[in-house]
Amino acid sequence: MENCKRLYADTLAFYRRELSGPVFTAGWAFAGIVVLGFAFSLLSPTRADAVIAYYAQMLGQSGVADEGGNIQFFPLLINNLVAMALALVYGLIPFLRLPALTLGTNGAILGLFAGYYMRQNISLLKYLLGILPHGIFELTALILSAAMGLYLCSTVTNSLRKKQTGVLRPALRRCCQILYLWVLPLLFMAALVETYITPIFFNWRHSR
Asked: Three-state DSSP class for 43?
């Protein structure tokens, strides 16, 4: 128990010292991309619908839902965890800032779907009820994971430019600890809510 408390304290100190800035930037960037995706969906509905159809096809092939379209807890949890871990791994590639793609893709999809709902004269409240209960946890995990990936990318890039050694390993270790101690519990809660609670909110609003 003491070791666990120490690990959480250490990762919290690391977050405050190194990650709070990247998380703030990633959060605002994500919000901006959602707005841009929403505007694109309204201004270019044909292209937006093509992207949405492609995303729906990929989601159907991911195995997170059964034949009836019901979300499955463990496949969803594993799928989301792999996505967050990849955002972290992408950060090991210098200069390219690939974790931003994960952030941008998810933000754009949220905005596109919001625009689609509006174009179909479906209440945005219904859309929000479908994403916010689990999105509070999942989007927090997404922004945190992308911010860690961007932080690692900056660390690798700076170490190459300045020919520094020994800076990547401790940064990567702390980020992996946050992935395990912070991101995994958030994704667990997100999968739990999306599987068992979000459908209740969604169906309740649909029945009104």
From this structure: helix
| Rounded Cα distance, 50 and 90, in Å | 27
Q: How far apart (Å, rounded) are the C-alpha atoms in residues 34 and 95? A: 25
Give CA–CA dist 22/58, Å, rounded.
29
> Scanning the structure block, which residue is given the tokens 């201004």?
43
Report the C-alpha gap between 73 and 208 in whole angstroms.
Answer: 27
Nearest to 69 by CA among 137, 130, 128: 130
Amino acid occupying residue 94: P
DSSP character at residue 17 = I
Q: What tokens does 71 get?
A: 């979300």
pLDDT, one tens digit per residue, over 30-76 is: 999 999 999 999 999 999 999 999 998 888 888 888 777 788 999 99
Torsion of CA 114, 115, 117, 123, to 10 degrees: 70
Residue with tokens 């999942």: 138
C-beta of residue 99 within 8 angstroms of C-beta of residue 91: yes
Flag whether the pTM goes above 0.90: yes
Per-residue burial over 55-81, b if 16 or more Cβ lie within 10 Å, else e, is eeeeeeeeebeeeeeebeeebbbebbb
CA dihedral 9, 14, 15, 19 (to 10 degrees): -170
Q: How many CA atoms lie within 13 A of 97 on its CB side?
A: 10
- Token pair 């992935």: residue: 179
pLDDT digits (tens, 9 = 90+) for 105-155: 999 999 999 999 999 998 888 888 889 899 999 999 999 999 999 999 999
